[in-house]
Write a structure and sequence with these properties.
It is a single chain. The chain is mostly beta strands and 199 residues long. Strands 1, 2, 3, 4, 5, 6, 7 and 8 form an eight-stranded antiparallel β-sheet that branches. Strands 9-10-11-12 form a four-stranded antiparallel β-sheet, with no helix packed on it. Strands 13-14 form a two-stranded antiparallel sheet. It is globular.
Length: 199
């Protein structure tokens, strides 16, 4: 993990997720680049000294996500009940066809043609302490891509939520979703329920 405090609007992040844009971050441990041009979103990552769970060293990736113009997505802009000067503006887009490569140590892995990814684009002024759960899932129904995006606990979600089922590039909006989870997060399955009984 890396934190860059007091960036003061110097990251170069565009005002909206739809604009062509490039954002880069690097320190002595890693470098990250996110480049949007037209329908293409390129993600570049290099962490040459990162220790992997199997003992190998180094992680690198070059992944391209494709966002077609006819894809619907979920946008929200909410604030916090405790502080209305804080806000959260976010776009969730899935499922996005993904191509490219990931290197684990010296092993190069090509993403399959069935690979899918998500865009989680956000900006805001957040409150100091937060609880936030986020879940995203993508797959295929035959040749039709689908995805689910669920969020719980971050900002005041009474006016809007980021919850939706995406099927064949169309968003089917869900209202409030509650995440029922054990206190230790692991002892039993998590249960997701929406207020209208659709999930």
């Amino acid at each position: 993990s890396a934190l860059k405090p007091f960036s003061m609007h110097k990251t170069g992040l565009a005002p909206t997720p739809d604009e062509d844009n490039g954002v880069t971050f690097s320190n002595k441990e890693m470098s990250l680049s996110f480049i949007k041009k037209g329908e293409s979103r390129q993600l570049l990552l290099a962490a040459p000294n990162l220790g992997l769970p199997d003992g190998r060293k180094g992680l690198k990736a070059h992944v391209v996500l494709t966002e077609k113009k006819d894809m619907e997505s979920v946008y929200i802009a909410t604030s916090w009940k405790e502080n209305r000067k804080c806000f959260y503006y976010n776009a969730k887009v899935n499922p996005l066809p993904a191509s490219g490569y990931v290197w684990l140590g010296d092993d190069k892995i090509e993403l399959s043609k069935e690979s899918l990814g998500n865009l989680d684009w956000g900006r805001g002024r957040w409150s100091r302490e937060n609880t936030w759960f986020w879940s995203a899932l993508n797959g295929y129904d035959g040749d039709i891509p689908w995805g689910i995006n669920l969020g719980y606990g971050f900002s005041d979600r009474s006016p809007a939520s980021e919850n939706g089922i995406m099927y064949n590039n169309i968003v089917h909006k869900l209202d409030e979703v509650v995440f029922d989870y054990p206190e230790d997060y692991t002892s039993r399955a998590w249960i997701f329920k929406d207020s209208e009984g659709r999930l």
